[in-house]
Amino acid sequence: MARIALVTGGTRGIGAAISQALAANGYKVAANYAGNDAAARDFNQHSGIPVYKFDVGDFGQVKESVARIERELGPIDILVNNAGITRDGTLQKMDPQSWDDVVRTNLGSCFNMCRCVIEGMRDRGFGRIVNIGSINGQAGQYGQVNYAAAKSGIHGFTKALAQEGAAKGITVNAIAPGFIETEMVVGIPEKVKDRLLQQIPLKRFGTAEEVARAVVYVCSSDGDYITGAEISINGGLLM
User: Fold this and answer.
1) What separation in angstroms does the CA of 92 have from each of 102, 106, 145, 209?
2) What are the distances in angstroms from CA 7 to CA 80, 133, 142, 195?
3) Which of 100, 153, 200, 212 could be bridged to 17 by S-S, CB 3.0 to 4.6 A?
4) Which of 27, 142, 147, 225 is catalytic?
């Protein structure tokens, strides 16, 4: 019987690639999204993957939605925490709401989601949790103190939860993408993109599919002995 995988932020960009890669490898996937109904509808029609709209930063909504997904599809054995937002600005210009929104969505969601699936995983003696971090959580980034702090927190969260879950058959890993060809990177000014490409040893941006393949690997039986790991997919930008 196919295992159930839930991907947050799973209908666009890297999340969509992850959802589709997991489905292509035999998992039954549920894709979460926050607000873009048109994109979610298009994704559902194109992929056939069911979509669920809820705010990953709201514990009550997460708890209710996880229960609904498990009623409709089955117990969640694989969780990919991919949802994230940016509210960029230098610290001296950043308002408290921009800080709170990013930390709530990017980091708080990892607690909310994991808290609502961890007990079932422990009871069944199996679980795969993959948290999507960022190169900017590893190295920092100008104008992103909120985003860098949240993504850095994900890496620490991953290592701590990996220690808690190991004895119960639950692996927890983080993947830290570099600059990936998504809407966010496409919107960067050409001069900035050229400068970035000069800094990347492989001289290109990554693809969402390359990130997705790493997620599939650590969720599969091939990745059974990998936990607490931080996998960088950045073309060598940060070694």
Assistant:
1) 17, 21, 11, 37
2) 5, 14, 29, 32
3) 212
4) 147
Name every residue whose Cβ is closer than 8 Å to that of residue 45 and which is 6 or more positions away in sequence: none
pLDDT, tens only, 199-237: 999 999 999 999 999 999 999 999 999 999 999 999 999
Query: What does the DSSP assignment read for 63-98?
Result: HHHHHHHHHHT--EEEEEE-------B-GGG--HHH
Angstrom distance (rounded) from CA 238 to CA 235: 8
pTM, full prediction = 0.95
- In whole angstroms, give the CA distance from residue 171 to residue 223: 9
Is residue 52 annotated as a catalytic residue, yes or no? no
Nearest to 215 by CA among 84, 103, 108, 81: 81
Nearest CA-CA partner of 36 in 20, 13, 65, 17: 13
Give the Cα separation of 113 and 135 in Å (integer). Answer: 22
